[in-house]
Design goal:
The structure is a single chain. This protein has 2 domains: 251 residues, Alpha-Beta Barrel (TIM Barrel), CATH 3.20.20; 74 residues, Orthogonal Bundle (Arc Repressor Mutant, subunit A), CATH 1.10.10. Helices cover 37% and strands 20% of the residues. The strands form 3 sheets. The chain has a 9-stranded mixed β-sheet, with helices on both faces. The relative contact order is 0.12. The protein binds iron/sulfur cluster (SF4). The site of iron/sulfur cluster has 11 residues, from loops.
Amino acid sequence: MAGIYIHVPFCRRACNYCNFYFSTSLGNKERFLRALCKEIALTSDYLNPQPVETLYAGGGTPSLLTIGDWKIILDALHRYYSFNYLKEFTVEANPDDLQDAEYLRGLQELGVNRLSIGVQSFFDDDLRYMQRVHTADDTLRAVKSAQDAGFTNISLDLIYGVPTLSHDRWVKNLELTAALQVPHFSAYCLTVEPKTTLENKIRKKILPPATEEHAAEQLDILMREATNLGYEQYEISNFAREGRYSLHNSAYWSGKKYLGLGPSAHSFNGTTRSWNVRNNIAYITALEEGRRDYEEEVLSPAQRINETIMTGLRTAQGVNTAAWGNEIKQTIHRYLQQINPEYYTLHGDVLTLTRSGKFFADRIAAALFLEESDVSLP
Ligand code: SF4
């Protein structure tokens, strides 16, 4: 089984912390749609013969597309894929785009069965700090409208570590998420990326800085409160009730194949990773000329194992080293000796992080990364 990701590279306004690829000018939307349809045709054999199990539209802001735009994209996909095995079709949406019942019904009629809503916080102070376009009231109306339209599989995106977000408010955000009866939420730490407006404003002391200590305390609160509220932390940033995991993201973490369409989208076919040009005009121009503008790399055996370590360690299932052979396992055991044993458990071949280890997931993964010389297998 495989997945298809569609990157919709437009946003109404730039949030100050964002480093995803998007444009705030929708002037090229029609050209983008035509280019995307061409890319769908040119990549139609990429996943063969894998049936498509998940479709995911991310961005940018996919909810800026109209129902007519979605029909164009889906018609193009249906020309090459049957979707007989499709289980999940997620559209990322901003709360301000989900105020219209007709739009929500239109998405449902097209087969969208999961919404991922960019809430970030239920407090307007935090939304202003992040320069989000919506308000807390927009969010409450959006979730209600989506539920009234029949969506039950809803995920909310939240951000913690924001200087204006007190610990009490963070608990409130989690409680409100649970009270809204959504089966899934993702919680990400605010990261101040270089060259973003946020970094610039913090440097000029226009906005207060985000500190590691504040973020670590809120990760602690997150893990405690999510459990209290009945959510399972099945991945460090992802929480689900009643097993309503994101099938699309779970497939990424378990190394399944996926095709990424649109500017900056990444694809993986089991051995090769490729990524489209991160620029709308370059992406569109190439496809108008009948070619794709992308780069690719063939992953070495060590890189493939390192990716499995990096993604697997973040999941509740952990990393299963059973298939890697004794030499590699011994190397990983040797590297593990540098790590505080309170941070991980090793049951047979399965390595998982403990609660305290989750605070250092990326550093632990990096400490376990294999060198090319560690992997003698093809
Ligand atoms: S809506 Fe999402 S993709 Fe667009 S600027 Fe904000 S965070 Fe970035």
